[in-house]
Amino acid sequence: MRFTPEELQAARDRLVPDVAASGLRVLFCGINPGLMTAATGHHFARPGNRFWPVLHAAGFTPRLFRPAEQEELLAHGLGITNVVARATAKADELTAEEYREGGRLLAEKVARLRPQWLAVAGVTAYRVAFGDKHATIGPQQRTLGSTRIWALPNPSGLNAHWTLQTMAEEYGRLRTAAFAEPGEG
């Protein structure tokens, strides 16, 4: 799908519905929808975004899903939401207050849906949203009720110091934890 610059700009501030249900193994959480995501209504839709290839390479999906197939994640115990709901061209257009309010709303959503893991794809967004300035990539000490939290590298193509391979390894660590049998790991 191709969009004109005008069509993409018209998607600014749009909201994109979550792909979510109660009791998921992992609720992935992006920073906020980009303009391509808002224009298509499909999460992580920008062609350079590596979310879908990383999900597959990490073993979360049996094949490479396209953004338009996002609803199929539910059958695998996976979902998608965002820290901040409104669409922007770049995440740096968001204010610290939007991140903090997004963290508050996300905590409410997690309390309602009760996923096993909340996986925030962007450690900086996690730090600001939850006031944890020392958070690093990986599992966090903080929980939201019984939901554990994992900070993941942002799959944006702009996050060049994480390769597809190194991201897949980190996402794979989460997959191992999320799908471990009770009493394991």
UniProtKB/TrEMBL annotation:
Keywords: DNA damage, DNA repair, Hydrolase
Highest rank taxon of the organism: Bacteria
InterPro entries with a match to the protein in the record: MUG/TDG (IPR015637), Uracil-DNA_glycosylase-like (IPR005122), Uracil-DNA_glycosylase-like_sf (IPR036895)
A Gene Ontology molecular function term of the record: uracil DNA N-glycosylase activity
Pfam families registered for this protein in UniProt: UDG (PF03167)
Biological processes, Gene Ontology terms: base-excision repair, AP site formation
Coiled coil (UniProt feature): none
Domain Uracil-DNA glycosylase-like as annotated: residue spans: 17-180
PANTHER family named in the record: G/T AND G/U MISMATCH-SPECIFIC DNA GLYCOSYLASE, G_T MISMATCH-SPECIFIC THYMINE DNA GLYCOSYLASE
Protein name, UniProt field: G/U mismatch-specific DNA glycosylase
Species assigned in the record: Streptomyces inhibens
